C-alpha cells in the first residue's frame, strides 16, 4: 500500500461527509423557506374566510414578541430583532441562533438577508458583517428596503387585516 492511497481514503471520506452536511443544510434551509411560503399562503386563505383581524389585534401580536428597540443600530446587531421583524411582517417562521457570540449574530443576520433574497428583494452591497458592525448607512438602507417591499406587498394584496410595516417598526421602537 502506497502512502498516497493510505491518506486519500480518509480525505475522500471527509470530503464526502462535508458535502453531505452542506447538502443537508441547503435542503433544510430550502425546505424551511418553502414550508414558510406554504404556511403564509394557507394563512392568507384562512384570513380570507374568517373576519379580518383589526390592526389592534395585530399590534398585540407584535407586543407579545417582547422585542424592544432603543438604539436601532445596536439592537439589530444580534439579528434577533431583524428576524422577529421579518417574522411579523411576513407571517413566516425563520430559524435563529440562540448564542451571543459574533458567529451567532452573523448567522442570524445572514438568515434574514437570505430570506429577503428568497423573497426576491434586491439588496445592494449589504452584508451580514455590515449590520453586525453597526454600519449606519447600510443598516438604514436595509430597513428602508424592508419597509418599501412590505408596503408595496400590502398595497398589492390589499389586505386590511395585515399589519403595516410602519406600525410594526413603530411598535418595535416604542415598546418600552
TrEMBL record:
This is Calponin-homology (CH) domain-containing protein. The keyword Nucleotidyltransferase does not apply. Residues 47-151 form the Calponin-homology (CH) domain. Residues 1-29 are annotated as: Disordered. GO terms for molecular function: actin binding. Residues 20-29 have a biased composition (Basic and acidic residues). Keywords: Actin-binding, Repeat.
Amino acid at each position: 500500500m502506497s502512502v498516497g492511497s493510505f491518506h486519500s481514503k480518509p480525505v475522500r471520506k471527509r470530503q464526502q461527509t462535508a458535502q453531505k452536511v452542506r447538502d443537508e443544510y441547503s435542503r433544510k434551509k430550502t425546505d424551511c423557506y418553502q414550508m414558510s411560503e406554504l404556511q403564509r399562503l394557507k394563512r392568507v386563505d384562512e384570513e380570507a374566510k374568517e373576519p379580518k383581524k383589526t390592526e389592534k389585534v395585530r399590534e398585540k401580536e407584535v407586543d407579545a414578541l417582547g422585542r424592544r428597540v432603543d438604539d436601532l443600530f445596536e439592537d439589530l446587531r444580534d439579528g434577533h430583532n431583524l428576524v422577529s421583524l421579518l417574522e411579523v411582517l411576513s407571517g413566516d417562521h425563520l430559524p435563529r441562533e440562540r448564542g451571543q457570540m459574533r458567529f451567532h449574530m452573523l448567522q442570524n443576520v445572514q438568515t434574514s438577508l437570505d430570506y429577503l433574497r428568497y423573497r426576491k428583494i434586491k439588496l445592494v452591497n449589504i452584508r451580514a458583517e455590515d449590520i453586525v458592525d453597526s454600519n449606519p448607512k447600510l443598516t438604514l438602507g436595509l430597513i428602508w428596503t424592508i419597509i418599501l417591499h412590505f408596503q408595496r406587498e400590502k398595497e398589492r394584496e390589499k389586505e386590511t387585516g395585515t399589519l403595516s410595516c410602519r406600525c410594526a417598526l413603530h411598535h418595535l421602537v416604542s415598546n418600552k
